């Protein structure tokens, strides 16, 4: 069937509906996800089709939500949790890190936790310090979790379907500013690997690794660099845990330079982990020091002017790349 232009919001909703029709063990759990359709309207219409037994509205208690979802997954269900904002993983961290993530290891693989935690993240909505953080590095530090970050509607559908079918807990991070972006998405059933990065633009001079809402900025920067005679290869990381080191290292051995650009604060971000991988696996191929772009070490500001200054942009990428030559 010919693909149709769909938003990330629509493709996620479609993936949820298709998986719920395919497998009656798939259930949705979260605050206001029923008749209201979720804070950002991602689950709109699913309550009407599947009812309150499978689209379960909960009290405002993220720890209880993830605990219930973990128990349900351990008992044979496939739980899909919606947290209103990724910042709220801190409230649920004990259930996520000490229960869901550890069960398979603790029971020598005899017990699995097929659970997905969906969470909108990222700055740019003027929502302040408690609703705009990027938490992928924190979650990626937890053994037993997979962390996936789609940047377009096609990937969002295929990755979410794979995450629901996976027998491990998967955190599925959705950047709020990308919900309305469109891409060709087929109505067919398809899945994508959860551990594979994608080369979005071929290049020979520098590798730029990015994800989520920084990816379109990296691609725009690459276009400007091309006009200056610098051909950048742009990689969409997609999987923050596990990191696809093969694709990244393969690119750097060709280009000789690496820039990692993320919206999260610079200190302790995934850029440091990716830099360490490349420094170990491709040090002899580097023609310049590895560079990183990230936010300053502050919470996301509420003030529009401060938030705009806080979020790394296209110019920061251009400045770093130009400094490599």
Short account of what is shown:
This protein has 325 residues and is α/β, with parallel strands linked by helices. It has helices at 8-22, 46-50, 62-74, 93-100, 103-106, 136-140, 153-165, 214-227, 245-255, 270-281, 304-310, 314-322, and strands at 4-7, 26-30, 55-57, 78-82, 115-121, 146-148, 170-175, 182-185, 198-201, 206-210, 232-236, 239-241, 258-265, 291-295.
- Portion of residues in beta strands equals 15-25%
Biggest β-sheet: strands ordered side by side in the sheet: 3-2-4-5-7-6-12
The global form is globular
Structure annotation, total helices: 12
| Overall pLDDT metric | 96
In this structure, how is the largest beta sheet organized? Answer: 7 strands, mixed
The arrangement of helices and strands along the chain is: EHEHEHEHHEHEHEEEEHEEHEHEHH
Structure in words:
The chain is α/β, with parallel strands linked by helices and 325 residues long. The longest helix has 15 residues, at 8-22. Helix 1 (8-22) packs parallel to helix 7 (153-165), helix 3 runs parallel beside helix 4 (93-100) and helix 9 packs across helix 10 (270-281). Strand 2 (26-30), helix 2 (46-50) and strand 3 (55-57) form a beta-alpha-beta unit. The chain contains twelve helices and 14 strands. The strands form three sheets. The chain has a seven-stranded mixed beta sheet, with helices on both faces. The protein has a five-stranded mixed beta sheet with strand order 9-11-10-13-14, sandwiched between helices. The N and C termini lie far apart (46 Å). The chain has helices at 8-22, 46-50, 62-74, 93-100, 103-106, 136-140, 153-165, 214-227, 245-255, 270-281, 304-310, 314-322; strands spanning 4-7, 26-30, 55-57, 78-82, 115-121, 146-148, 170-175, 182-185, 198-201, 206-210, 232-236, 239-241, 258-265, 291-295.
